[in-house]
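In pairs, describe these two lines:
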Amino acid sequence: MIARDIHKKLVEISTYYPITTITGPRQSGKTTLIKSVFSDLPYVLLEAPDIKNRVLEDPRGFLDRYPNGAIFDEIQNTPELFSYLQGIVDENKDIKFILSGSQNFLLLENISQTLAGRTAILKLLPLSLAELKKTKYKIKNSLDYIFKGSYPRLYNNSIPPDIFYSDYIQTYVERDVRTIKNIGDLDTFRRFVQLCAGRIGQILNMNSLASDTGITINTAKSWISILEASYIVHLLQPHHKNFNKRLVKSPKMYFYDTGLACNLLRIKSAVQLDLHHLRGNLFENFIVNELLKSKFNNAEPSNLYYWRDKHGKEIDCLIETANKLIPIEIKSSKTYTKEYFKHLIYWNKLSGSDKKDNYLIYNGDENDKLPNGNLISWNSLEKIPLE
């Protein structure tokens, strides 16, 4: 098992609540993690048909089998349990339940209705660069990492990415889609997902996406919500502060895993990726994901945004802290040039921020303090202050 950075926070937070919920993409390592951390609790997979039937027939009797608590995996499949869990933990302060699920909206909707205040919610994404650097799987080339992606089984089981992601799409994505919403035309939905991959790291234009897919705007919005609920894509929201400038207000779209995006784009190797026209977008997606994983692995919500005005001036990523906004520019080149700081300098003048808080993340190996800010290697992201 690859050690997960969220482990310590998971143990700590589980002492504060009778129920701890961990959510994230399928195959991100949730089950392995919770079974190792809470090895004293019985494990129950609620996707199994016989288990689901048992819950439906007698939910109270089912829960009576676990007087000291249990791990309930894929809990969104049995929403009937949530109200019963509420009553149990209110009556028994010593009982402990660990819930896990891979469909974010379905899970959080039930939690907000019945378990508010009784559970902590943590998100586990696929392996981070920081986690892999501590193992024998440490990767020296960022493009190899971007192409391969970061699902644990790719490393533990040495599964070729093309095989893994093809199975992943068929086994998990399409099945989850049917669970969340009954989509009749899966071929059109597959094309929609591929078109999303072609827009990776770009401002989401729902009209264009709907038109190219041949669906209505409302359908496109619904399908984007499905991809968010299944942890396939996430939307980076624009920062609201405008400094008297007109701003772009639409989010940018990223995939939770760049390996999946590469597969959808039919990229067959890191060599092909190096020559691909979306290489820069995928590198940006990779960096944003790593920053997001750092937040989630510390059991904290995202504080990441982007900023763009109507003149095309853009900051790829803004980190909002209590006292300031930290601007980040992301470049896929291995060679640094002064020109890369131009949007950061523009931001400094507009916002009155200090150049020492500028960060330029690039695909090279050097780290340096420069007159216009900090030059940071893709392999040294721990130097980026997230608070």
